[in-house]
Amino acid sequence: MTHASDTSKTSDPSRAYGSGAGAQGGVSAPDGRQGPAVSRAGLPEWLDPVARAADRIEPLQLSRFLPPESGAGRQSAVLILFGEGPAGPELLLMERASQLRSHGGQPSFPGGALDPEDGDPRTTGPLRAALREAEEETGLDPAGVQIFGVLPRLYIPVSGFVVTPVLGWWREPTPVRAVDAAETARVFTVPVADLTDPANRATAVHPRGHAGPAFLVESALVWGFTAGVIDRLLHFAGWERPWDRTRRVPLDWHA
């Protein structure tokens, strides 16, 4: 599977380094650096539908906003981290500090822009960035995270970010917290059962008329890019339950 702006399959980290059950251990990137592996070995069975979805989902099935063919946009990555909690399978989210210029106050996946030391954005750079940013923002130990897939790169027009969603299994959970209050208001987990509950689903409507999926969970309204990716993952994993798409939640002008 290639992306709209890709020129070869090697620009997709999950394809360049393998995401099958046999892929494991560190791998060498084209620049010779040892990078994170994409591995399915030992995944719990309940994650199999997500792993299969990652193999077949196409960019336009995730979002209509794809990276510009010109190559413009700031390369970034987010970590979509699944774990097991008291209420069963869960997803790690954080709430961005309200004073941030970009997406301030929004619940989101841990993540951020690639740094030069992360390496090639066409290969293992996004994997390194997703783990590094998650550690910096939530305090989790990356050693306990197993990357099992990479979704197609997407584009966030309002901020100009080209985002690679990296799928992770929290094999060995560690305590998490808001490491820097200037960037993160809080860190929390959401049971997948709550995300699939029709009572927690709605359509968020921006004053400009934009509308998209939303989740009302853990005293938060999850909307925008994060909600869109969650919505599509639930759908393609076969976890989605029928919900009332006419239920509207208005956003304010600061959203």
From TrEMBL:
<dbReference type="InterPro" id="IPR000086">
    <property type="entry name" value="NUDIX_hydrolase_dom"/>
</dbReference>
<feature type="region of interest" description="Disordered">
    <location>
        <begin position="1"/>
        <end position="40"/>
    </location>
</feature>
<keyword id="KW-0464">Manganese</keyword>
<dbReference type="InterPro" id="IPR015797">
    <property type="entry name" value="NUDIX_hydrolase-like_dom_sf"/>
</dbReference>
<feature type="domain" description="Nudix hydrolase">
    <location>
        <begin position="72"/>
        <end position="216"/>
    </location>
</feature>
<keyword id="KW-0460">Magnesium</keyword>
<keyword id="KW-0378">Hydrolase</keyword>
<feature type="region of interest" description="Disordered">
    <location>
        <begin position="99"/>
        <end position="125"/>
    </location>
</feature>
<feature type="compositionally biased region" description="Polar residues">
    <location>
        <begin position="1"/>
        <end position="13"/>
    </location>
</feature>
<dbReference type="Pfam" id="PF00293">
    <property type="entry name" value="NUDIX"/>
</dbReference>
<keyword id="KW-0479">Metal-binding</keyword>
<dbReference type="InterPro" id="IPR045121">
    <property type="entry name" value="CoAse"/>
</dbReference>
<protein>
    <submittedName>
        <fullName>CoA pyrophosphatase</fullName>
    </submittedName>
</protein>
